[in-house]
Specification:
Rossmann fold, globular, 15 helices, single chain, 24% strand, 19 strands, 507 residues, alpha/beta, six-stranded mixed sheet
């Protein structure tokens, strides 16, 4: 028999051991910065995650890759508390001066005007802003910093890192899509949250800006910020030390993204109506002579000359803010300053009587901003149909032959199963494909593709570029804006490069 005393000593030792175990367990648990248990996410009948488990330890910086629609964005939004979900998401923030926040930076950003409206027409940016419809970049940052109690002095190195100082007094409405992405990132990096959740942060950024972002993220990680990036990009911060892909609702450890993003090109036959040679209104589609565009004292384009002939395939490149979008706005008829410049479109001087709609009949256009203003209630079928009349939605009946063209285009872009789905309910990649289908459905002689593969995964990008190569064989004239040299159609045979509003080179 044990004596009472010895029993008590034994119990004391057990208690001490229990306390030690508890302390060890607590220590292990606190090293686990993020703990996801039995995560369930569903939208209607579609289940994205069903019992997902995942954890992030302190010192880890992750890249999450995967196909469009796999759930990458949903995961980040769940971590940030942006969507409803089942299961638990626990975050063990540290007791430091850094904000206790898992900040989600979405893959695109839509600003508001001074009245708080998000639904104004984006082409207003090409008009003269006598009344200043939106805040300037610096005013927007001052507002954000004031709300968050941030030190304005710490903003300057971030602006310098992105080469964004020149945009301080630029109105938000005048920024290009790449510059808007920079503004998103500047705000997030200035805040320096404990966890930074970046959804496709490289979208719309030129090579120099992508490199600058990676350098800044390395610095942030060194200062203790945990970085989780959703991307299929392969140019990544050196501080990233964990990789995974999402597939079939599971997070699978993997090597760097290139190991999971390679995709074979699946060729589908080009619909017969898209093989028909488009009507060529003139052998010279675009003739711009010494074109200049200014807003107040800011020069956007400076003495730019450019000739695009029927059948040519052009790559238009330049750093963010170099003037690409403004040049395209002159070509598309959206910029009123076209009337004050020497520009001929399809053989007719701008201002000779053709309406903007007469010009757009001959073009199929997609831009990064189209997502912002497209009809929120349109199905995929309606969205593609709207390309026939260049509207942002479709509310009319179509002829039998046009309906057939729409269905054939949906099949060509692998969207037939989604024809009756709301465009806005699809993953971003499929939304882009639907708007690309809208671009070609009327078989225009000129395709203007402004960063058309934003949001597409590797398979979708390869598939789309192969489609552009196929369409190029049937007489299409193409202007293609793209920052990634390795993600371009093979058919491009001319190049115009802009730098600070001037022509840097023509090839």
């Amino acid at each position: 028999m044990f004596s009472t005393g010895s029993a008590r000593i034994g119990l004391d030792k057990l208690a001490a051991g229990a306390e030690t175990s508890a302390a060890i367990f607590l220590k292990i648990k606190t090293m686990e910065l993020v703990s996801v248990k039995s995560l369930n996410v569903a939208f209607g009948a579609k289940t994205v995650f069903d019992g997902l488990d995942w954890s992030v330890s302190k010192g880890e910086n992750w890249v999450i890759s995967g196909e469009s629609g796999s759930g990458k964005t949903c995961l980040l939004k769940a971590l940030a508390g942006k969507i409803e979900h089942g299961g638990t998401v626990e975050i063990n923030f540290a007791e430091t001066s850094a904000p206790k926040e898992a900040l989600y930076v979405e893959n695109w950003y839509k600003f508001v005007n001074l009245e708080g409206d998000r639904n104004f027409y984006y082409q207003q940016r090409y008009n003269y802003h006598a009344e200043h419809d939106t805040l300037t970049v610096f005013a927007e940052l001052e507002k954000f910093g004031g709300e968050r109690g941030l030190d304005i002095a710490k903003l300057e190195p971030i602006l310098a890192g992105f080469g964004f100082e020149k945009c301080r007094q630029t109105q938000l409405i005048e920024l290009s899509s790449g510059e808007h992405k920079k503004l998103q990132l500047v705000r997030a990096l200035w805040l320096k949250p404990q966890i930074l959740l970046l959804d496709d942060p490289y979208t719309g950024l030129d090579a120099k800006s992508r490199a600058a972002l990676n350098d800044i993220l390395d610095s942030e990680a060194a200062d203790g910020t945990t970085v989780i990036i959703v991307t299929n990009d392969t140019e990544l911060p050196k501080s990233v030390n964990k990789f995974a892909k999402i597939s079939d609702g599971k997070i699978l450890p993997t090597d760097r993204p290139e190991s999971v993003c390679a995709a074979e090109i699946v060729h589908k036959p080009v619909p017969a109506f898209l093989k028909a040679s488009p009507e060529i209104p003139s052998q010279v589609f675009i003739q711009a002579r010494n074109v200049s565009v200014k807003y107040d004292e800011k020069t956007i384009l400076d003495n730019v000359s450019w000739t695009v002939r029927a059948g040519e395939k052009w790559l238009l490149q330049g750093h963010n803010g170099s003037g690409k979008s403004t040049l395209l706005s002159l070509v598309c008829g959206d910029n009123p300053q076209a009337y004050g410049n020497d520009i001929e479109l399809f053989g007719k001087p701008r201002g000779s009587g053709e309406s903007i709609w007469d010009i757009k009949k001959k073009m199929g256009i997609i831009s990064p901003e189209m997502h912002w203003y497209f009809d929120q209630n349109a199905t995929v079928w309606n969205s593609v149909a709207s390309g026939l009349l260049d509207t942002m939605g479709w509310f009319l009946d179509v002829s039998f032959s046009d309906a057939q063209k729409i269905d054939q285009t949906l099949e060509f872009f692998d969207l037939k199963a989604d024809r009756d789905t709301l465009l806005t309910s699809l993953p971003l990649g499929k939304q882009r494909l639907a708007l690309l289908a809208r671009t070609v459905v009327k078989n225009p002689p000129l395709l203007i593709l402004d960063e058309p593969c934003q949001g597409l995964d590797a398979a979708q990008t390869n598939r789309f570029n192969a489609a552009i190569d196929d369409l190029g064989e049937y007489g299409k004239t193409i202007i293609y804006v793209g920052h990634y040299e390795t993600r371009l159609p093979k058919c491009l045979n001319h190049k115009l490069e802009l730098e600070k509003g001037r022509v840097l080179s023509v090839q």
